[in-house]
Amino acid sequence: MALNAVALITGAGSGIGRAIALRLAKDGYNIAINDIRRNEGFDKVQDEIKKMGRETVECIADVSNEGQVKGMVDATTKKLGGLDVWDKCFDINAKGVFLCYKYAAQQMIQQGRGGRIIGACSQVGKQGAIYSATKFTVRSLTQSAAMALQPHDITVNAYAPGIVDTPLLTAARERVLQLGRPLDTLAGETGTPEEIAALVSYLVSKEARYVTGQSVNINGGRLFD
Question: Does the predicted model carry a pTM greater than 0.70?
Answer without folding.
Answer: yes
